Amino acid sequence: MIWRKLDESWGKFHKFVGPPAFNIARNVLELLYTQALAWLGFFFSPFATSLCTVSLLLIFYVKSHVMLRCCKPSSLIYRAARNSSSFIVLLLFTLILCVAPLVYTSVSIRPSAVCGPFRSQPSMIYTLTSLIKSGPSWVSTAFNVVFSVSFVIPCFIITNIAIY
Asked: How far is C-alpha 94 from the chain's CA centre?
């Protein structure tokens, strides 16, 4: 009897308030946060990346089910083109904020002297540079070309043109 009364009162409340609208901006920001955790976890804790991947897949399917079953369509037309570019800029900013600690850690901090794969090296980046220098000459040349300013800036411009 109590459950029937609660169900009736919930039905009246739900009819009065109506179903919620799906908040696209908030959900995209939650996905960006999880993506940032995956990027940071890739270097410091590889298991965190796999955990974030499973979490993103699960969240995607749960939110798509909730959106299709429980939420009403928005009364305003969503301006995907305007918000899409701002979300891409926000994703780029998040990537830069996640890469900065990784670069600092790889270049500046001396690895532990007793354990770890980099124990005999002065820095983590030294392993990569010594590997490139010891390889064939074409690998070193390709590395220098790909990371030169004359290659990176045109790629950045072409990528921005393709996005917008």
From this structure: 7
For 88, the token pair is 């891409």
Dihedral pair phi/psi, residue 110, rounded to 5°: -80, 130
Alpha-carbon span 59 to 100, nearest angstrom: 27
CA distances from 93 to 50, 89, 100, 139 (A): 23, 6, 11, 31
Q: Cα torsion for 38, 42, 44, 49, to the nearest 10°? A: 50
- The string of pLDDT tens digits covering residues 40-61 is 888 888 888 888 889 889 988 9
pLDDT digits (tens, 9 = 90+) for 125-148: 888 888 888 888 898 899 888 888
Which CA distances in Å does 73 have to 18, 81, 121?
Answer: 12, 18, 57
Q: Encoding tokens for residue 143?
A: 């590395």
Q: Could you list the beta-strand ranges (E) of 36-88.
A: none
- Cα–Cα dist 42/52, whole Å: 10
* pTM (predicted TM-score): 0.61
